[in-house]
Amino acid sequence: MEAILQKIWELTTIYGIKILAAIVIFIVGRWIAKGFKNLTQKMMEKRNVERTLMSFVGNLTYILLLTFFIIAALGQLGIQTASFIAVIGAAGLAIGLALQGSLANFAAGFLMIIFRPFKVGDYIEGAGVAGTVEEMQIFTTQVKTPDNKTIIVPNAKITGDNIVNYSTKGTRRVDMVFGIGYESDIDKARQIMEEIVTNDGRVLKDPPHKIAVVELADSSVNFVVRPWVNLADYWDVWFDMTEKIKKRFDEEGISIPYPQRDVHVYEHKQEA
């Protein structure tokens, strides 16, 4: 009987220490995991990261660290953890292969929110679409087109192509082309365009505007007119100036070849 009690005491001492150590590892590990979660979220909050992504990354950090400490605690009890690690690894590989498209969109969304090539409210062009950014999510970006259509774009497509952000600088150059007939007076046409541009209060003084002959086409002499304006005035200046120059040309007898097949037509995708 004494021998049995001695054996029980030895087993209790050995496994009791291991169980106590495993409990300590789990409790301390959980505390560390929560600390890293809070630290990660605070760092992302300082960078003004979207709250959805901030919560997701914080919880993911907590789960990964807690899993590590649980495996360490099981190892302390003498349980073979190699099989657990193999199962977790196999499950992670299977999930990664099944969701590789979604994971690519997630990674792209994470990078976009961290590096901020654009923000909500910016007018952008990317992934074959152009519009105002309404919402940036983890997997997709919601864009509203000028004709009030909503387009949901996968983040991987946006980051996989060039991104044009029209809202970053605050000012933009209006690029217009006007053609006049070869029999018309070039100097007079230039003077008319110069007056219209100079007298428009929306045109910025710095940087200075540019008016120049850009091409001697088959049936017209083509001018470029390039004033700088605030972003909000872009289309108003474009429409008003085009109409004013046409009317002044008619009044002053400056001929405009019709149809102007030789005048370059530039596609403008900025929001009207």
Largest sheet: 5 strands, antiparallel
Oligomer: single chain
**In what range is the share of β-strand residues?**
15-25%
CATH topology descriptor of the largest domain? Helix Hairpins
Highest-level CATH class of the largest domain: Mainly Alpha
CATH architecture of the largest domain: Orthogonal Bundle
**Which residues form runs of ≥5 with pLDDT under 50?**
260-270
Describe this structure in words.
The protein has 272 residues and is of the alpha+beta class. The protein has helices at residues 2-46, 51-76, 82-98, 100-115, 155-159, 186-198, 234-252; strands at 123-126, 129-136, 140-144, 150-154, 164-165, 171-173, 176-180, 210-216, 221-226, 228-230. It folds into three domains: 2-98, Helix Hairpins; 117-165, SH3 type barrels (Roll), CATH 2.30.30.60; 171-252, Alpha-Beta Plaits, CATH 3.30.70. The strands form three sheets. Strands 4-3-2-1-5 form a five-stranded antiparallel beta sheet. Strands 7-9-8 form a three-stranded antiparallel beta sheet, with helices on one face. It starts with a helix and ends in a 20-residue tail after the last helix.
Q: What descriptors fit this protein?
A:
Alpha-Beta Plaits, 272 residues, disordered C terminus, 3 domains, alpha+beta, Helix Hairpins, SH3 type barrels
Summarize the structure.
With 272 residues, this protein is α+β, with helices and mostly antiparallel strands. The chain is built from 7 helices and 10 strands. The protein has 3 domains: 2-98, Helix Hairpins (Orthogonal Bundle); 117-165, SH3 type barrels (Roll), CATH 2.30.30.60; 171-252, Alpha-Beta Plaits (2-Layer Sandwich).
